[in-house]
Each structure stands twice: as C-alpha cells, then as structure tokens.
What we know:
Helix content: 40-55%
CATH superfamily: NAD(P)-binding Rossmann-like Domain
Bound molecules: nicotinamide-adenine-dinucleotide
CATH class: Alpha Beta
CATH architecture: 3-Layer(aba) Sandwich
Strand order of the largest sheet: 3-2-1-4-5-6-7
Number of helices: 9
Strand content: 15-25%
CATH topology: Rossmann fold
Number of strands: 7
Largest sheet: 7 strands, parallel
Radius of gyration: 17 Å
Oligomer: single chain
Amino acid sequence: MDNLKGKTAVITGAARGIGLAIARKLASAGCNVVLSDILQQGVDDAASDIKKNGVEALAVRTDVSSLADAEKLVTATLEKFGRIDILVNNAGITRDNLIMKMDEKEWDAVIAVNLKGTFNCIKAAIRPMMKQRSGKIINLASIVGLIGNAGQANYSASKAGIIGLTKSTAKELGSRNIQVNAIAPGFIATEMTENLPQNAKDAFLNNIPLKRAGQVDDVANIVLFLASELSDYVTGQVINVDGGMVM
Ligand SMILES: NC(=O)c1ccc[n+]([C@@H]2O[C@H](COP(=O)([O-])OP(=O)(O)OC[C@H]3O[C@@H](n4cnc5c(N)ncnc54)[C@H](O)[C@@H]3O)[C@@H](O)[C@H]2O)c1
C-alpha cells in the first residue's frame, strides 16, 4: 500500500509501544515519518530501522510538555521535508494513585505531558497545515477519558481534556480542510500496561467482548485510516479501539 506516498507524518512518543507501531504503519504506506520522543536513543534506532523500507525517517528528541520543544520539532520537520501533513499526538504517561493519595506532582506531570503536550504540538503544527490547506491531526485519548477509572483521576482527566481539545480544534480548523480526530484505546499490550497488577489485567480482560487484549497494530490500523484520504469527511470524532469494552 502506498496511499501516503510523498506525505510527511510527525509522531510523538514514537520510541516504543503504540507510537512506534504507528510510525511503522504509516511508513509502510509510503509516508515519510518524523519520530519524536523524550528517549533519544529509542527514536534514533527506530528511524534507522524504518529507513531500510525505502522511506525517509527523521528522529527528533522532544519533550512534548515544552512548547519550545514542540516548535523545534515542527521546524526540524519543515527543514527536512518542507511540509507536515499528519500529526499524531501519542506521547503519554501515567502516574496512577487514588485521589486521596495523589500528590500535586503526579497530577501536574500527567496533565503536562498528555494534555498540554497535545496542545503544544497542535499549536506548533497548525500554521503550516493552514497554509497548505490540508492536514490530519490524530490525538491518542483513552476509554478512561470517557468512562473514568479508579486510580487514574489525573490520567482520565487528561484524556477527557484531549477529547474536548479534539472537538474544539476540529470546529476551528474544518474550514481549512484540517481533520482532527481522537482514538480511544482500551487495554492494549504495551510497556504502559505490562506493569498493572494481575487482578487489574483480569478485570480488563473480563470486560472485553472480543476476549483479548488489543495489539499495537489494532490502534495503528485506525491511525492509518484517519491519516489517509479515506477519512476526509470525518472530523471531531472519537473512535474507540477497545474490543467492544465501551459501547
Ligand atoms: N497501552 C494502552 O492500553 C493504552 C490505552 C489507552 C490509551 N493509551 C495511550 O496511547 C499512547 C501510547 O501508549 P503506550 O501504551 O504505547 O505507552 P508507552 O509508555 O509504551 O509509550 C509512550 C511513549 O511516550 C514517550 N514519552 C513519555 N513522556 C514524553 C514526553 N514528555 N515527550 C515525548 N515523549 C514522551 C515515552 O518515552 C514512550 O516512548 C499514550 O498516549 C497512552 O496514554 C494507551
């Protein structure tokens, strides 16, 4: 498949997990990819690996919680590729705790990376997208942003915030032919979920009609759809990728 040939995508949090799978998936559709992450080595290795498939890949160390870093990421993308067609806001962290015990640091860290990080990258990327009069912005939310989760007040608030941000931005940018959508994954097997206690994993699995944890490619496939012209008339939506957990 080469339906993204000649396009450029920026993916945050691309050193591993869902972000890395998204970068690989978009590259397999012919897209040039900019992999950014706070982990420099991770994106360097991933970019050189992806280049073997005949597309261009650039690695840029970025802390998305910094607007200056987000701006540098977009500048580096424009210097190398001259355009930015797709932005995938995937970088995210958890600092789980019950609200009774959650301290200010845990709250602030999650909001800074997940919610403000998404704002920062959107803010940095929309000017060139508006000039081009085209663009696709895909934000990684979570089903817990829709239904909440005990022990994740900070994380679920950040993900609910991303959903509001997605819808408002979709309304503002629609006239410039920029589509903004969110994906709400359920329980996906990555490093983020591997350290959950077994009883929490079992509780998730019991609630999944498709009776399995999601794989990173289950999410990357939907990103591919939202990044391609197949979704040109879809904006402001949240697509759950959760094996049917929330319906
Ligand atoms: N795994 C799941 O079940 C699941 C479910 C719902 C939503 N999500 C969301 O999907 C996204 C990817 O999750 P994952 O499971 O691959 O997580 P992960 O922890 O495996 O990967 C997250 C990546 O983000 C990077 N990152 C962290 N802080 C950063 C920062 N400040 N700046 C730039 N990069 C930073 C990390 O270094 C890491 O490479 C996250 O937004 C997460 O909230 C995951």
